[in-house]
């Protein structure tokens, strides 16, 4: 069993360093390398503010990307299918009638094995067809869930039945989750050696990256050893580890990181048929590091086609919510979450709003300038006075401020959720984790950066009744952010898998 490990503090004393160097050189020798530039490829996709209403609306439009099917290196045509996605984003109600039209066009697609052409020339193709048949029936089952107007009829589940306002559509989510458990298979490429592949940090601010990679390594249920049976393919590299081993800090040089990713994808594309078949669209990478997005930009198809699961989900840096997935940053200082979860009732929370953190990016600068030492109700610190506990402060506060740092994600969001403090997201261009399932407006407050001066007014304007509702929902949503080892149903690992599952449902591949 693989151990979780911290990123090395001293690179050159590490025995891994030589190994890393050797494997890098080997990989570079094996493949013919392509030139790449570091400048991130910005997509056309822009939001001006974090407007969740318009975000969900925009997802009903088919997303525009460099179409993989137009390229002749791909033998498979890819149908972008935003149906399920659009549906889950539509938080309107469980009143499914409005959603029916979304699925109308799928009725023309064969949905049973019998409907398929009997003669199959290429074995691999027939396997792809079977994969797609399975997905089609999963879509149909989710579609049926949207038509079920009888809200008292719930899916049976021994562990948990999602319900309530924290979900965009609890019933559809549950159906989709159950379909995922029945069907979803992931192939993890075995190429690449630790420390940069099949490995990652399980503590630190980037713990969710390492934990996911390790959990995938040990995964039994969702993992398949037969790549022909997989719905998605995981590229198991850790950007955090690459930064630790390959970043030349003295020259601010990331070229070895970029080259490693380029080489890796070339090896995968040369050795297996799957990458070329979809030009990466059924492949995913995952990173919590600030540089996750820029690292993916070294391979244009990875950036534009693949599912990128990122903490740094910044829509003005090309994050595309209909193909990429946002997952949470969770700062695990000790590697344990014991003692972090839970907090006192609302009546014993005396502070209106709290933040403590050092200067880290322009948003925090604005926050500190505006609020540090200014107001008893909005307590903002760059460092806490001696003897004051950070976790106690979270538990004494009604609202916890979670401004973006140098990147959009903040570990404070999950810290607040754990401490049952209503999170206040202060960010622009940020897509919060699991936004396609969770209705963030129901349990958090979003404040655009331009409104930092009005924080107090905005929070005071929320009625006590509404606050109590949000507090209750924060407790309910905790379950989806909990880190378990081994993972448990509906926890952060499975929510991340579910996000990937939804994105795979969004595409359909034909030979
Ligand atoms: C968000 O978008 C919706 C739909 O486009 C619009 O009606 C609403 O005014 C927007 N809200 C803000 C705060 O911009
Ligand atoms: C959501 O549903 C409402 C009706 O309940 C409909 O008017 C609206 O167009 C739908 N929006 C999306 C994004 O599908
Ligand atoms: C590849 O596609 C491009 C444009 O789609 C076309 O111009 C070119 O002739 C194609 N090449 C081959 C070998 O089919
Ligand atoms: C559900 O849909 C029906 C038919 O479109 C409509 O008459 C009804 O008002 C809707 N109910 C809710 C709660 O939106
Ligand atoms: C709704 O579902 C419940 C549980 O299956 C059932 O008892 C009830 O009769 C249903 N109601 C309607 C109107 O179909
Ligand atoms: C995939 O495409 C690349 C670039 O066109 C090519 O070098 C590689 O051999 C292809 N892989 C397979 C398995 O055919
Ligand atoms: C999001 O991306 C934009 C464009 O690169 C950048 O200006 C902004 O600082 C980023 N936001 C954060 C909080 O990193």
From TrEMBL:
This protein's superkingdom?
Eukaryota
Give the molecular function GO annotations: glycosyltransferase activity
Q: What is its main location?
A: Golgi
Query: Is 4Fe-4S there in the keyword field?
Result: no
Keywords (alphabetical) are: Glycosyltransferase, Golgi apparatus, Membrane, Signal-anchor, Transferase, Transmembrane, Transmembrane helix
Q: Where in the cell is it found?
A: Golgi apparatus membrane
Q: Does the keyword Glycosyltransferase apply?
A: yes
Membrane spanning segments where?
A: 16-33
Q: Which GO terms describe its cellular component?
A: Golgi membrane
Q: How does it sit in the membrane?
A: Single-pass type II membrane protein
- A Pfam family this protein belongs to? Exostosin_GT47
Q: Which residues form the Exostosin GT47 domain?
A: 181-460
Protein name, UniProt field: Exostosin GT47 domain-containing protein
Report the source organism.
Answer: Kingdonia uniflora
